[in-house]
Design brief:
- There is one protein chain.
- By secondary structure, the protein is mainly α.
- The radius of gyration is 15 Å and the shape is globular.
- The mean pLDDT is 91.
- It contains 6 helices and no strands.
Length: 116
């Protein structure tokens, strides 16, 4: 249950000055759109950026935090879909159409294939 006093995740205005550091980009797991992730992080509260970023990075030991696949804010979810879209790049047309993989970004991948 979400507390009624909980601060919204999304900023009222995106922080256009935020950028992923070179080190943060180097630690990203393969297959995610780093530019879309940077856009997502510009839209969220600074105190939550590290928490979200960690879901897309691989630690020095090779460990990952787990997949962040859903954010209960339609605007942020749309950007999260862009972060995940490259994961569908190697999927077959059938896999995309039938949604074989339970991960975000399928509709973006489908639209990209239709434009080709």
């Amino acid at each position: 249950m979400i507390s009624p006093d909980a601060e919204p995740l999304r900023l009222a205005k995106a922080d256009s000055t935020y950028q992923l550091s070179v080190d943060d980009r180097a630690q990203l797991a393969r297959g995610f759109d780093a530019d879309a992730l940077e856009r997502l992080l510009r839209e969220v509260r600074p105190d939550m950026r590290g928490e979200i970023l960690a879901h897309f990075q691989v630690s020095a030991s090779g460990a990952r935090r787990g997949h962040l696949m859903e954010i209960h804010d339609p605007h942020l979810q749309a950007i999260l879909e862009e972060v995940w879209a490259p994961m569908w790049d190697d999927a077959s047309a059938e896999a995309i159409e039938q949604g074989w993989f339970e991960m975000p970004g399928r509709e973006i991948a489908r639209a990209r294939r239709c434009r080709l």
